[in-house]
Each structure stands twice: as C-alpha cells, then as structure tokens.
Amino acid sequence: MSRILIIEDEAHIAEGVRFNLELEGHQAEVAETGEAGVQAIQAASPPFDLLVLDVMLPGIDGFAVASQLRQNNWFQPILMLTARSRPEDVLQGFEAGADDYLAKPFVLAILLARVRSLLRRGPWQQPVSKAGVFEFGNKRFDYDNLEITANGRILRLTLMEANLLRYLIQRQGTVISRKMILDDVWEVHEDTDTRAIDNFIARLRKHVEDEPAQPRHLLTVRGVGYKFLANPS
C-alpha cells in the first residue's frame, strides 16, 4: 500500500482524488496549503510515496513547494495538477521538480493511470542494461534506484532527472535536439521556449560531471541540443 499526499485547496477535488486513491488501495491524506503540505511531508513516518500537487494554492504555490522539497532532498515522485496548462507552465513545473503534469479539468481514469505509472517507475522499452545499471567514467548510474554513485558518494535523482539521463544514455553519441527532449521525455508537443531544458541540463550536470562548468559527458551542441558521451576521448 502506497502513501500519497494531496496538496489541493479545492475541497471537492481533493476529496474526490483522495476517495478514488483509497479505492485503488492507497492510503491518502489531504493538505489545503503548500505550507501545510511541506510540514506533513517533513513529519511523515513512514514517508509519503508520491505527492499530488496543485499549482494554484494559497500562500506558497505548487512550483515553490516542489522546488523547496527538491532542495531539501525529497526525491519521491510529484504529479502536478493545474489549470495552468500552457507549455511554458508545464516546463516551469518540470524545472521546479515535477515528474508529471496533468491539466485541469482532468479525467479521473487518466489521473489514476499517471499515479500508477509514477509509483511503478515504469521502465523504458529498452533497458540500459539487464541490471538497470550503466557505468561511465568513475560513475555508476542505477536507474531502478534513481541513484548515481560517484567518488564513494550516492547522489539521488528525481524520476524526471533519471528518465532524461536514461534517454540520453540510450542514444549516446547522437545529437539530441531540445525538441526531441520536449516530445519524448516531457511529452510537450508544442513549440515553446526551451530555456527550461537548458536549466534542467545544467542541474543534471551537477550529478554526472566532475566539473559541471567543463562537461565531458553531457555536451552542448550549439544551436541544436545535447549529446551524451560515456567515454570521451
């Protein structure tokens, strides 16, 4: 049984989601503000397995909640719910630390499917290796556990960070455009500002590079996108 926290200030939505998650066999709780939600996560024992997070909240908004949780090393999946469904809002959510994004009004069956997918941390069609582990340089990327081991330290990744790194590794040596990342990883199928991707890549470099300012594995291809090299010359 998974523990799920819902941060949603519209009571009819929060209670409807809670009721249906409990019908699915989960334990669900509701917080009405971002501040109350952060406090609930900090106090939770055992910890929550997933957060369903509204963006438009009284007090601190959902973007700030997600960013604060990630900065405090809370790595469980975050599903954002919001009426703000413009591509730039979706990208802002991912940049803040969300793993998936569902626009209001939503179909309940789709929300439940997204929750199941995030809890399952569903594998890509082609695994990185049989064990879900890929080694490059002095690092070891464990996709199943969302971890990078480097210099004796274990670094946790969010699910979205792990998905993007896995996507790049599977296509190592190939130039990947920003639009491919939007379409294939973030599932944003509209022309939009891609600066959020650049910021996301910069954050990922802090995990995969010894010197993020001088990357050797996760390279920028000017004017196009990015390329991953496992064994740079």
Q: How do the helices and strands line up, and which of them pair or pack?
A:
Elements: E1 3-7, H1 11-23, E2 27-31, H2 34-43, E3 50-54, H3 62-71, E4 78-82, H4 87-96, E5 100-103, H5 108-120, E6 133-136, E7 139-142, E8 147-150, E9 153-156, H6 159-170, E10 176-177, H7 178-184, H8 195-208, E11 218-221, E12 225-228
Parallel strand pairs: 1-2, 1-3, 3-4, 4-5
Antiparallel strand pairs: 6-7, 7-8, 8-9, 10-12, 11-12
Helix pairs in contact: 2-3, 3-4, 4-8
What does this protein look like?
38% of the residues lie in helices and 21% in strands. The chain is of the alpha/beta class and 233 residues long. The protein folds into two domains: 118 residues, Response regulator (Rossmann fold, 3-Layer(aba) Sandwich), CATH 3.40.50; 96 residues, Winged helix-like DNA-binding domain superfamily/Winged helix DNA-binding domain (Arc Repressor Mutant, subunit A), CATH 1.10.10.10. Strand 8 and strand 9 form a beta hairpin. The longest helix is centred in the last third of the chain and has 14 residues. The radius of gyration is 18 Å and the shape is globular.
Question: What distinguishing features does this structure have?
Answer:
233 residues, 12 strands, 2 domains, 5-stranded parallel beta sheet, 8 helices, Rossmann fold, alpha/beta
| Number of strand segments | 12
CATH superfamily of the largest domain: Response regulator
Strand order in space, largest sheet: 2-1-3-4-5
Structure classification: alpha/beta
